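Moderator note: this is an archived Q&A kept for reference. The question asked for a predicted structure of one protein chain; the sequence and the answer are reproduced below.
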Amino acid sequence: MNKNNFAPTPPMGWNSYDYYDTTVTEKDVRANADYMAAHLKQYGWTYVVVDIEWYSNDAGTMRDKYQYIPFGDDEMDAYGRLLPSPHRFPSSEGGKGFAPLADYVHGLGLKFGIHIMRGIPRGAAQKHLPIYNSRFTANEAADASSVCLWNPDMYGICDNEAGQAYYDSIIALYAEWGVDFIKCDDICDSRLYREPLVFSGWHETRMLHRAIEKCGRPIVLSLSPGPAHIDRAWHYAENANMWRITDDLWDKWDLLKEMFWRCENWQDHVKKGCYPDCDMLPLGHLGKGFGHAWECSLTHDEQKTMMTLWCMFRSPLMLGCELTLLDEWTKSLITNEPLLSLLKADRRGRQIVRTDTCAVWVNESDNGGAACVALFNLKDTEASLSVKLSDFMEDVDAGREYGFCELWDDARIRTVHQTIETDVAPHGVKVFMRVSE
């Protein structure tokens, strides 16, 4: 199978982490899937992803001390493969795993995904559990010198036959469940192992890719956390479909502003099936599982800037909020069809200006589609910004006027002196797409 066919356009969907942290339940997932099917699917939002520690029976019970409880009560089968917590995901009882929930999501016309940590459960290695369909045991696959700095659940996996057998076993199980998307964590970058040759995440990424090739199901592979290593762009592209170019991104202007240079660094690596990932969109209601729920703290203009940059760059789009609490304004933000059209397979984005006070991005079509230009005001005050048509259009006729539509307010303009000029709000954006004469 060719992994580049798994995601011909950047994946769009919902992920449970930003709102639920480790505490999401089957009821929560179904409610968000129902909302997506009813209100967002028609705009391209299709993936429903259960994030971290779905296997934990006691997740969230010691949140004042731990985000991830050391030696917690984790659900696991006889072969060291983690299973959904049955009291959080009741349909998984009796060894069914996520198959019933995946069936429910698929029945809505959506796709189903899960989060995993790289490696093998420490408990499986300590108990020397057999690895399914192999002659090996878990301790032979485990690399006890390779651990995650922030999550205590797993050991890394050795680059040997036992290690590959374990990855083959879990990916085969996920394929049986009907999983369409895997977000693997602690694998794109490491906070602990700063020497690249020491980090086992590099060979573990290859092993996961091999296991997906063997399983017979097209499963999109997403790598977290970032920042991804630009000198290993080839490695991510060979083995995965998405890779995070930033650490966890939250609703803070300084983090959003930083994404302009990150996207600039990665803009030439966006291609069919392979997408540098700007992380989830922290919109709407967030943080319930963290113990202090809040609404997105970005201004409306900043939220438009974020949504525009992600689309111009052609990042995957993953919502981290509680969908059932979306207000009409946020819903309109994520269902802007002309803006979402920039994610199509024939489009490509590039940054042509970036200073401390402004940025200009262009999104073009390889098949003659309308050119689009976005002018971002990075200042704390309103600014007048401009761009020459010749900076993003070929064969500009000096004696002709051109028409454009602004994609956020639907205003129509005609160019003067072959230049687009506009006032842009603080931290805001204006996005212009050429329209037929």
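Archived answer notes: The longest strand covers residues 347-354.
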